[in-house]
Automatic annotation (TrEMBL):
Domain of life: Eukaryota
Lineage of producing organism: Eukaryota, Metazoa, Chordata, Craniata, Vertebrata
Sequence similarity: Belongs to the FAH family.
A UniProt-annotated Pfam family: FAA_hydrolase
UniProt name for this protein: Oxaloacetate tautomerase FAHD1, mitochondrial
Amino acid sequence: MATSKPLSRFWEWGRNIVCVGRNYAEHAKEMGSALPAEPLFFLKPSSAYVREGSPIVRPYYCRNLHHEVELGVVIGKRARAVPQDAAMEHVAGYALCLDMTARDTQEECKKKGLPWTLAKGFGSSCPVSDFVPKEKIPDPHKLQIWLKVNGKLRQEGDTSSMIFSIPYLISYISQIFTLEEGDLILTGSPKGVGSVEANDEIEAGIRDVLSMKFKVAQ
Ligand SMILES: CC(=O)CC(=O)C(=O)O
Ligand SMILES: [Mg+2]
């Protein structure tokens, strides 16, 4: 599909948001989950995007809204069954993302064996930073990502601790479905996920690269 929108505004492209789960051992542990033998992933709709200046809105059915800070990988070139050693050629850049999660809903879904869409795919569940071209990040597996709520540090993780690397994820996902230009892959959350309330301020960043702030709406 042709588009006149620049890739630096990938959130306007209406493309897939692919989220990887349990990609950091300490986060899997804090959730009481086993380590995955292969990547676990799920999708958010493109209407989940929210940008700085607009609030994160808790869905009406959620009583326990959680933050998860994650490195996002923006696809720059169609990827269909790409081998790992060619996977990085398909990356245009990066963004910092929040995988906002209705944790109570997710727990209910897990118990009932239901998909996580209600827990993960609501409107404003994917706050996203500015686009960072890949030339500005020589090694995406050497980044420190962090998140504060009302000025207090909650999450701090190093992307070197990912269980499945970015080339592995691109290769793996692209064997299941084609990744298109403008698609975003959220690479999983480090430990320290926790609740936010109305009027809280979430600040998150990639050390030495960027930071972003979001308010949680009433
Ligand atoms: C337990 C989860 O919600 C999985 C997830 O999203 C993650 O980042 O890990
Ligand atoms: Mg997540």
